[in-house]
Amino acid sequence: MSPCNALVVLLLCAIFSFVSASEITYDGSSLMIDGERQLILSGSIHYPRSTPQMWPSLIQKSKEGGLNAIETYVFWNAHEPSRRQYDFSGNLDLVRFIKTIQDQGLHAILRIGPYVCAEWNFGGFPVWLHNMPNITLRTNNEVFKNEMQNFTTLIVNMMKDEKLFASQGGPIILAQIENEYGNIMWEYGEDGKAYVNWCAELAQSYNIGVPWIMCQQDDAPEPMINTCNGFYCDQFSPNRKNSPKIWTENWSGWFKGWGDSYPHRPAEDLAFAVGRFFQYGGSLMNYYMYHGGTNFGHTSGGPYITTSYDYDAPLDEYGNLNQPKWGHLKELHEVLISVQKALLNGERRDIDYGNMMSATVYSYQGKSVCFLGNANSSNAFTVEFENTNYTVPAWSVTILPDCFTEAYNTAKVNSQTSIMVKKPNAADDAEEPSNLKWDWKNEDFEEIKYGTVVDSDLTTSELLDQKAVTNDTSDYLWYMTSIVVDEKDAFVGKNVTLQVNTSGHILHAFFNSKHIGSKLAQNGHYDFVFEQDVQLTLGTNQLSLLSATVGLPNYGANFDKRADGILGPVKLIDHSTNNTKDISSNEWIYKVGLQGQKLESYNPQKLNEAEWSSEGLPTNKMFVWYKTTFKTPLGEEPVVVDLLGLGKGEAWVNGKSIGPTYKAENCRTNCGEPSMRWYHIPREFLNNEENVLVLFEEIGGTPSLVNIRTITVGKVCANAFEGSTLKLSCQGGKLFSEIKFASFGETEGTCGSFRKGRCESANSLSVIEQACLGKESCSIPVTEAFLGPTGCHSEIYRLAVEAVC
Ligand SMILES: *[C@@H]1O[C@H](CO)[C@@H](O)[C@H](O)[C@H]1NC(C)=O
Ligand SMILES: *[C@@H]1O[C@H](CO)[C@@H](O)[C@H](O)[C@H]1NC(C)=O
Ligand SMILES: *[C@@H]1O[C@H](CO)[C@@H](O)[C@H](O)[C@H]1NC(C)=O
Ligand SMILES: *[C@@H]1O[C@H](CO)[C@@H](O)[C@H](O)[C@H]1NC(C)=O
Ligand SMILES: *[C@@H]1O[C@H](CO)[C@@H](O)[C@H](O)[C@H]1NC(C)=O
Ligand SMILES: *[C@@H]1O[C@H](CO)[C@@H](O)[C@H](O)[C@H]1NC(C)=O
Ligand SMILES: *[C@@H]1O[C@H](CO)[C@@H](O)[C@H](O)[C@H]1NC(C)=O
Ligand SMILES: *[C@@H]1O[C@H](CO)[C@@H](O)[C@H](O)[C@H]1NC(C)=O
Ligand SMILES: CC(=O)N[C@H]1CO[C@H](CO)[C@@H](O)[C@@H]1O
């Protein structure tokens, strides 16, 4: 294996991308760049889920991790929030993002969609699009096709104008139209087929000079290349012999919903999937996600997708290396790149040993590369292969670049495990959370409660889909009506039940200016029925219902047709007589959003200090705004805010939304813990000195525990097997201060509880101390020559280290 090879490839790519146009072609084996076959190792990074300041370091860490391409979707609803009004500023600067990829000499894969799914609000479709008359999304519908073409053309032209396609000397080597349509196409019948053909023709008409792909589209029309998405794609074959085997989404982990436990995909399993894919003729693989990032603002889809989109990706939400995953894959990438010529040009021969054990030999120009694959999830197997015995652990792939020496096994992790710590904000006097000084004010809805609203947004005698009224400008919509009763009315003075049938996701009810109850949809459902007893008084009774959504759906056939909010019926029921008043067709007055949103109570430039109070800070109170200030933490480490204690709402720093908050409890692994506690504050959002943090609390919480922290590596643990080189590093300029454990021998236990085994090298601790203490990183050859003789007469010894940064 040779890291140098990887470097040479990247440098060549860099030179090509700056100097000249590249010709991208392909056949059944691979993509070719200017006639040369290329193994593409790509990772997804979605530009709106980080900030322009983070992009260079994210892309650099991807490159150091052995990737040669970055893939992204394009987010239509973010770019065209109102029809024909565009936003490509800040973290929506697509051109700058692609140029950042280019600057580092990597390729780019542009998945335009414009439907993206991506756990993104409404799958990336603007809500105004859904509100257009006579439209049906994602099918052979003229209104939709016109809008899709209008946006797609804008993006393609933008890329062309900046010369970003490889055919123009730019980094983009592949583009995608539509997305995962094959899964749901049958629901659209003949129109679905016609639409896919239209998409293919539209894509071709742009003449971008690079191939187009359609993922999960088994019948992709020529010359669209169909590609695979999934946890494993080794068994996938494209629908035509001349299409290469491309894996557009190898899921590095999974997204997280409010109330779900943290998803985890072990490094070994991910490496196994990649190893299998290339063992069986893969040519292009993309990690979904390589960096997941954060759903800022109200970009989370869902419903109920969390603000964190960490995805257990090789780079964590904040951009730190997620170790050992990042390092374990880096080693795999280096081996794969070193043998790419044989993989892509060679002749392949598969040998089946039964029991899910197989070998694959690629021969090219007199040299061979071999894979030993064991897909049996419970048993290791020893096979005699070309006169040598190899033991291949369960569920693993071994790569022998010369068909003899084991350079890599997907189950043997030699990279360090980093244990991240959250350090108090040393810049702030308020190291203790109780020292943060809070001001607060109530959300002002007096006129709503009393039904005296003057500036309503709409009045009609129907219950409407929330989207149709808000255009997605807010997650909140008020539905208000009056119920007039005279003395002859049988309901007067009686206890009757108010029954509201709603389609999600949260309902707060006020009757005659009193809060009478709230209900949250449970367990990921949308619909529920709210019931509460009320007493009608003679004359006018005022009912005000606040409906709130928690991310619009992003997946499934016709997902866009699902209506949200209070769709009814809304009834009053007298259970003593079974008399019912259906008030669904009353006159309903609508008001979009919260007063605080309208006043921009989160914007430091618009804060009206007179409205805020520092006295009697309320806790566990609904509809409260809180604000405080904090100093910018020193250094470069990522910054987070601990929102333990908060319920549901939203948080802003210096006027920028760091996302919705929701204390949905995670009750699969850590019962009683909120499913999300730490919210990322990108350093780009911070001022030089003092910052304003504003919280909106919808269901009740306390800000007294809120505190600002920085995240860094606190401790590292590692295992390394003989013959490898163990590299250990801290982060952010911190140095190794203590080696808590080091033993080379038959070590037992796991990180935090390592124990000496039957035998060990007497020197291992002092050798490691000498090599690492006082350094930011160190590199240790795992050999008896370096660490001293172990005296173990077995094959299972390893070096285990636990060190403190
Ligand atoms: C919508 O379609 C109907 C029936 O085809 C047609 O009468 C109406 O004019 C269309 N409305 C718009 C705004 O295009
Ligand atoms: C998109 O639509 C607008 C009108 O709404 C039109 O001016 C513009 O030319 C269209 N763009 C394309 C590429 O068709
Ligand atoms: C895994 O190996 C064991 C032992 O050889 C065998 O009994 C089992 O059937 C294998 N499992 C699969 C899925 O092949
Ligand atoms: C491999 O192992 C088998 C079973 O232990 C043994 O019979 C064989 O001789 C070994 N082959 C080599 C090349 O060591
Ligand atoms: C929503 O959009 C429609 C049409 O695009 C417009 O008429 C309406 O005023 C908008 N409503 C709000 C609340 O922005
Ligand atoms: C109505 O219900 C309230 C509380 O549920 C109760 O206190 C009151 O006595 C009831 N009134 C009648 C007339 O049933
Ligand atoms: C609520 O509305 C849904 C959908 O319209 C309907 O299926 C359900 O029966 C309704 N439930 C009640 C209690 O009215
Ligand atoms: C009201 O309806 C319920 C369910 O249909 C029934 O069990 C009950 O006897 C009815 N009560 C009266 C007072 O009619
Ligand atoms: C979604 C998907 O592609 N799933 C596939 C993942 O890989 C396994 C094993 O190769 C298949 O059985 C799944 O269908």
Summarize the structure.
It is built from 15 helices and 43 strands.
Spatial strand order of the main sheet? 4-5-6-7-8-9-10-11
Number of helices: 15
Rg over CA atoms: 29 Å
Bound molecules: 2-acetamido-2-deoxy-beta-D-glucopyranose
User: Looking at CATH, which topology of the largest domain would you report?
Assistant: TIM Barrel
Distance between the termini: 30 Å
Taking all residues together, what is the mean pLDDT? 91
Shape type: globular
CATH superfamily name of the largest domain?
Glycosidases
**Quaternary state, please?**
single chain
- CATH architecture classification of the largest domain: Alpha-Beta Barrel
Low-pLDDT residue spans: 1-18
Question: What this model shows, in words?
Answer:
The structure is a single chain. This protein is of the alpha+beta class and 805 residues long. It is 18% helix and 32% strand. The strands form 10 sheets. Strands 4-5-6-7-8-9-10-11 form an 8-stranded parallel β-barrel, surrounded by 4 helices. Strand 2 and strand 3 form a beta hairpin. Helix 1 (3-19) crosses helix 9 (325-338) and helix 8 packs parallel to helix 9. The two termini are 30 Å apart. The model is unreliable at 1-18 (pLDDT under 50). The protein binds 2-acetamido-2-deoxy-beta-D-glucopyranose (9 copies). One 2-acetamido-2-deoxy-beta-D-glucopyranose binds next to helix 6.
